[in-house]
Amino acid sequence: MKTRVLLCLVATLAAIPAHAGWEDAVGAYNKGDYATAAKEFRPFAEQGQATAQYILGWIYQNGDGVKQDLAEAAKWYQKAAEKGNADAQYALGSLYAAGGGVKRDDAEAVKWFRKAAEQNKAGAQYILGYMLSAGEGVPKNEAEGLSWYRKAADQGLPDAQYALGLGLAYGKGAAKDEAEANQWFKKAAEQGNVDAAYLLGYNYETGVGTVPDYAEAVKWYRKAAEKNNGEAIYHLATLMRDGKGVERNDAEALALFKKSAELGQGYTSIAIDEYVKKGQPDRAFELADTWLAKRPDDVQLLTVLGFAAANEARTNPTKYAPVAKKYGEKAIELIEANKKPERVSDTEWAEYRNKWLPQLYLQLAALATKTGNLDEARKKLERVTQLNAKDAYAWYLLGQNHFNEYEKLNSESKTMSGQAKTDATAKAFAKLDQVIDYYARAVALSAGNTSQKDLYEPLLKDLTSIYDFRNGSKSGLDQLIAKYKQ
């Protein structure tokens, strides 16, 4: 902005006859001696010289050599604006739009932006276009708004070129024209507009307003990515991962995904899911940890990761069981503490909790069983039955857990003698009675359920055998099962 003022001062020197003190004022400003500049410009401003009034307003707005005073800035801008100074009109409109030094008044802002825009002030044309398109301080008029965007865009203002491109892309204020929209996005992107570069890359990738061209998409994504546009970084990573428009580079793709995650790119969960689907769990978990480092309470992602890691643990428990436990236990902690995500409604959260909390406990119980930690598995299974007493599979697993304990106790009792053997045998049979009770619950709950036929039939056979062994007959088994039928 100071560069713009300096250029204004240079133009002023050529246009205004020299007066005592004027060149001193300009020279002081150009040297950065703003206190002297303010002092030298003031007499000219007080005499009604519009350019001096504008520059004095600028000095007070920015606190250059004087104490910042937006009200004082607005006063001098007002004086210059009323004399037709376009820069002052634009600056005064900006203060009214922001409520700086004056009470915010969008209608008054529009008034001064329009005056400056009519004098071909590109910045004012752009802002006026925005306010008309948004209906701020003036009745909404997208067509007129777009016309002002075009005027500013024709003058080379990149923000206006981008805004014009958006209007044409979505048919806001004019007939939809995606091809022309891309032309304006390109003009804006070539001047460094990051959003335009990203959108141009996206359009080349997806074929919006042009034929798909992955190489061009990569080119424009790179430009936006260099300025830390998270969406561009993410899309560039996907193209690099898949070798589209650029040589495939898995390491660089992952690095880009991680960078986009650090910037808060919401598509990160999609990239994680893709890595899982492609059989690349290590990359999935590395990327997830980058995301979770800044968002440790992302319970939905933690839930997904817990199941993904548990799936990997089926074939490699040594490596992945600890990973599944880390994600799963954190997800459980958040759900049990009722840490509802902001964007999830109370109803959705209740459904989520009821569906996934028992499954998380079940998954961790299965892992604990696989790694030989029966006590931990038992505690988790007991929690599942508390959460959902109708979960037949949970009762079956709990019974299986106790059966493993029974076999251990029974085996130990055979090495004993006397009272110790008697006590140990009684303890083993008490455990077997628990097994029978839990299996009976599972059989009762799965009976008649076609989706649980594979559980019901073999389990009923096992239960019958165990019950007969324990009681010497099958008498009473049907009554036991009936007791637990819902």
3D structure, described in words:
α12 runs antiparallel to α13 (214-225) and α13 packs antiparallel against α14 (230-242). With 486 residues, the protein is mainly alpha-helical. Helices cover 76% and strands 0% of the residues. Residues 1-15 have low confidence and may be disordered. The chain has helices at residues 2-15, 22-30, 34-46, 50-62, 70-82, 86-98, 106-118, 122-134, 142-154, 158-170, 178-190, 194-206, 214-225, 230-242, 250-262, 268-277, 281-294, 299-313, 317-336, 346-370, 374-387, 392-413, 418-446, 453-471, 477-484. The chain is built from 25 helices and no strands.
- General form: elongated
SS field, number of helical segments: 25
The assigned structural class equals mainly alpha
Largest sheet: none
Radius of gyration: 36 Å
Order of helices and strands: HHHHHHHHHHHHHHHHHHHHHHHHH
pLDDT average, as an integer? 94
Low-confidence stretches: 1-15
Q: Compute the separation of the termini in Å.
A: 76 Å
Helix content: over 70%
How many strand units? 0
Q: What share of the residues does DSSP label as strand, in percent?
A: under 5%
